[in-house]
């Protein structure tokens, strides 16, 4: 992160070659490729960073945990803002890919190996090859089960 902070500052000062050189030296030592244009908040932790890729227009909030092999990249179809925006207090599991100019809400969890191509609302848990939001599905399932139990209780009474 120290390398990124330096290269990002140089990038903002329009020293593009020097900023890119520093980011590539950092990649050589760490295995983490962060484009100097990426905006990264405070308290971001990259655990076992080998293979992590963070694109140019990516914005990462505060207190985010990123595990190994994560790609925060573009789809190749967009211009301008091409990379995701990650909210605060997000956990992104190993081998996940968050692609395109999407928004991942605050307090989300993205499971290992998940591919996320659409916006994720805050306080969600997303897993699976196509990034299904299971947190809201589980809540709905529990609600249905509670209603079934109430119906059974009412049937017993009457």
How would you describe this protein?
This protein has three helices and 15 strands. Helix content is 32%, strand content 21%. The termini are far apart. The chain has 158 residues and is an alpha/beta fold. The model has no long low-confidence stretch (mean pLDDT 90). Helix 1 (2-12) runs antiparallel to helix 2. It has helices at residues 2-12, 16-30, 134-157; strands at 33-34, 39-40, 45-46, 53-54, 59-60, 65-66, 71-73, 85-86, 91-92, 97-99, 103-104, 109-110, 115-116, 125-127, 132-133.
Give a nutshell description of this structure.
The chain has 3 helices and 15 strands. It is an alpha/beta fold and 158 residues long.
Q: If helices are DSSP runs of H or I spanning 4 or more residues, what is the number of helices?
A: 3
Average pLDDT works out at 90
Percent helix, as a range, is: 25-40%
Helix/sheet category: alpha/beta
Count of individual beta strands: 15
Mind summarizing the main beta sheet?
6 strands, mixed
Q: SSE order in H/E notation?
A: HHEEEEEEEEEEEEEEEH
Assembly of the depicted chains: single chain
Sheet-strand content, in percent, reads: 15-25%
- Overall 3D geometry? elongated
Which spans have pLDDT < 50 for at least 5 consecutive residues?
none
Strand order of the largest sheet: 3-6-9-12-14-15
Q: In angstroms, what separates the terminal alpha carbons?
A: 66 Å
């Amino acid at each position: 992160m120290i390398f990124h902070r330096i290269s990002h500052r140089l990038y903002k000062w329009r020293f593009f070659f020097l900023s890119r050189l520093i980011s590539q030296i950092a990649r050589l030592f760490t295995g983490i490729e962060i484009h100097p244009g990426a905006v990264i908040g405070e308290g971001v932790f990259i655990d076992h960073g080998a293979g992590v890729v963070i694109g140019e227009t990516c914005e990462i909030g505060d207190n985010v945990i990123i595990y190994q092999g994560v790609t925060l990249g573009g789809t190749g179809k967009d211009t301008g803002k091409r990379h995701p925006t990650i909210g605060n207090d997000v956990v992104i599991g190993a081998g996940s890919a968050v692609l395109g100019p999407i928004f991942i809400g605050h307090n989300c969890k993205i499971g290992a190996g998940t591919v996320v191509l659409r916006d994720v609302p805050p306080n969600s848990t997303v897993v699976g090859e196509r990034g299904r939001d299971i947190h809201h599905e589980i809540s709905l399932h529990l609600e249905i089960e509670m209603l079934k139990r109430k119906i059974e209780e009412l049937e017993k009474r009457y």
